[in-house]
Design goal:
By secondary structure, the chain is mainly α. The protein contains six helices and no strands. The longest helix has 19 residues.
């Protein structure tokens, strides 16, 4: 039961981590504004799962999923970092 409930918040944990890196200028430096992403729970756990599962060379799925949450432009480095965040949050939750 506990893992079921905590799974609902994995996307929010990812969102808060990405948000911090975005504010620090590490991610999405070409996109200074994304009001949609600032809203709590704007990044669903299913999106994080899709990002984690992307095994394409250019992380095309990651790019599409980031666009769906308001980051229309993402660099390959942005995609790699966000995917790594998703992997780490997911693996930590599974432990």
């Amino acid at each position: 039961f506990e893992k079921m409930i905590s799974g609902r918040y994995l996307g929010e944990i990812v969102r808060l981590t990405v948000l911090q890196l975005w504010k620090e200028g590490v991610l999405f430096t070409n996109q200074p504004n994304n009001p949609e992403f600032l809203k709590p729970m704007a990044f669903e756990t299913r999106v994080a799962g899709g990002i984690e599962a992307d095994d394409t060379r250019t992380l095309e799925v990651v790019g599409g999923l980031l666009a769906s949450v308001g980051f229309a432009i993402s660099s390959p480095e942005d995609r790699q970092i966000v995917q790594e965040i998703c992997v780490r949050v997911s693996s930590r939750a599974a432990a």
